[in-house]
Design a protein that fits this description.
The complex is a heterodimer of chains A (about 110) and B (about 350).
Chain A lengths: L23 H14 L7 H14 L3 H13 L4 H21 L1 H11 L2
Chain B lengths: L7 H4 L6 H9 L7 H7 L12 E5 L25 H14 L3 E5 L9 H10 L3 E6 L12 H7 L3 E5 L5 H8 L3 H14 L10 E5 L10 H16 L5 E4 L6 H10 L2 H10 L3 H4 L7 E4 L5 E2 L2 H5 L17 H5 L10 H4 L12
Parallel strand pairs in B: 1-2, 1-7, 2-3, 3-4, 4-5, 5-6
Antiparallel strand pairs in B: 7-8
The chains are: A mainly alpha (about 110), B alpha/beta (about 350).
């Protein structure tokens, strides 16, 4: 089975920088900004890695989960902290679905007798 | 996960031998050699700067069998520095005027002459570093060691994989974390790590096949967590990269991740770290008196260059200063990211 039979390949993560093949100036701006975002600031690099890991699960990006599982460990987080971050993402996703239930109820109220 | 794992030596594993490890590392296809990386930094051939530390490995005996141990140390190992080698080390220390003696192993305090080595080195006016695993002193007949260290004002560098039991025990064996807390509390009670001038530094290695993070940030987290959870205090945290040597190399091989890990080290090459690798300022002595550029080369049976004095018995500062430092693919472990040394990050 060739690589092209799948949309996702682990080794493609390391090729991320190749997106500068087109519009290189935009890529440069993105990577500069990306680097600045994850620098130590009001939040620590460890906290930012946990946020990134949680978002990676929310958007279900396998590249990001790969990268930020490793990054969170390297920044000193443990599996309990990483799992709690993942639950935060899952809770917001689940809650986001459920809170729309109010819209459903609005429709029910409008349509019903 | 059992409490005590068999060493590669006891298992008769091929990677118990340094030449077998070097052969395995040499066959891994990497983006570039360590020599070419140094060359790009203007450091090839790598040479010493000023010899400021004599690191003596007292032997391979240890009460723990950590899964990442580059020494392949364990309770079943019997290699121990003989008296004649010890005397030659102390004589060289004095003759060469080296300011620091770094005592490692194995668990160095299990050596029968450990107390004497510490005492005599301090009497020479030398700064002494003792590398410990925090639990050897809980064994019968070793409980006096912490008091001796304090009396001699020895700097303690204690290895602890993580500030929780799960990760620590995964690397060191069941129950080791709780015993390590006992060792830490004993050192704190003596004033170590409490701002009294008795220095207690901790060393962490990643509990897996990833690289250590920013040492300053990790230290801040560790200080907070150890104080909050256990009221334990220390001075500095050293974050050290797991070296693809001995048991960690065997671990990589079992996971099929040797090439991936080495490639990661190569890609993380940091020229600033390369200028400050510890082998430029340190001389390593094996339990049998053989000289090495570092403890890692020692475990790979890669002694100092052939034209340099090869044992502590014929060691001379000038001849050693002129040597080329022996290198290999494993050296990328000391130059990855912020670098890694016996004193943690270097860049």
């Amino acid at each position: 089975m060739s690589d092209r039979d799948h949309y996702y390949h682990q080794h493609d993560l390391a090729r991320f920088s190749e997106i500068d093949r087109g519009a290189p100036e935009l890529a440069r701006k993105f990577f500069d900004w990306y680097g600045a975002v994850f620098a130590e600031g009001a939040l620590s690099m460890r906290e930012k890695a946990l946020i990134a890991l949680a978002v990676a699960h929310a958007i279900q990006c396998p590249y990001c989960i790969d990268a930020y599982a490793k990054d969170a460990l390297e920044k000193g987080s443990n599996v309990d902290q990483m799992t709690e971050a993942m639950h935060v993402a899952a809770a917001i996703r689940g809650g986001s679905s459920l809170v729309h239930g109010v819209q459903m109820l609005n429709h029910v109220d409008e349509l019903g007798m | 996960m059992g409490r005590v794992l068999p060493t590669l030596h006891t298992r008769g594993a091929p990677l118990a031998r340094g030449d077998a490890q070097r052969a395995r590392l040499a066959e891994v296809a990497l983006p570039r050699t360590f020599g070419s990386a140094l060359d790009s930094t203007g450091l090839f051939p790598l040479r010493p700067t000023t010899l400021d530390t004599l690191q003596i490995n007292l032997g391979k005996r240890c009460n723990q069998t950590c899964r990442h141990c580059h020494v392949d140390a364990g309770p079943d190992r019997s290699e121990s520095m003989p008296r004649a080698v010890l005397e030659a080390c102390l004589a060289f220390l004095e003759r060469a005027g080296i300011p620091t003696l770094d005592v490692t192993g194995g668990a160095p305090e299990l050596h029968p002459d450990f107390r004497e080595i510490i005492t005599r080195a301090r009497a020479l006016g030398v700064h002494v570093i003792h590398r410990c695993n925090l639990t050897a002193v809980l064994l019968p007949n070793y409980s006096d060691i912490p008091e001796l260290l304090a009396a001699c004002r020895v700097e303690v560098i204690a290895s602890l994989p993580y500030y929780r039991a799960r990760e620590t025990d995964a690397q060191r064996g069941d129950g080791v974390f709780q015993e390590s807390l006992v060792g830490l509390r004993r050192l704190n009670a003596l004033g170590y790590g409490m701002g009294t001038g008795l220095v207690l530094n901790l060393v962490t290695n990643p509990v897996g096949t990833y690289l250590p993070g920013n040492q300053t940030a990790l230290e801040r987290d560790w200080k907070r967590e150890l104080r909050r959870r256990y009221d334990i205090h220390f001075d500095h945290l050293y974050a050290i990269t797991n070296m693809p040597i001995s048991r960690f190399l065997a671990f990589l091989e079992e996971r099929g991740r040797t090439e991936e890990y080495l490639t990661r080290l190569v890609n993380a090459y940091n020229p600033a770290a390369a200028t400050r690798v510890m082998c430029r300022t340190l001389l390593s002595v094996g339990w049998d008196g053989t000289l090495y550029d570092c403890d890692f080369n020692q475990m790979l049976d890669l002694p100092v260059a052939a034209r340099a004095p090869c044992t502590i018995f014929d060691a001379g500062v000038e001849a050693l200063a002129a040597r080329e430092i022996a290198i290999g693919p494993h050296c990328f472990g000391c130059t990855a990211g912020a670098g890694s040394s016996c004193g943690g990050a270097v860049a």
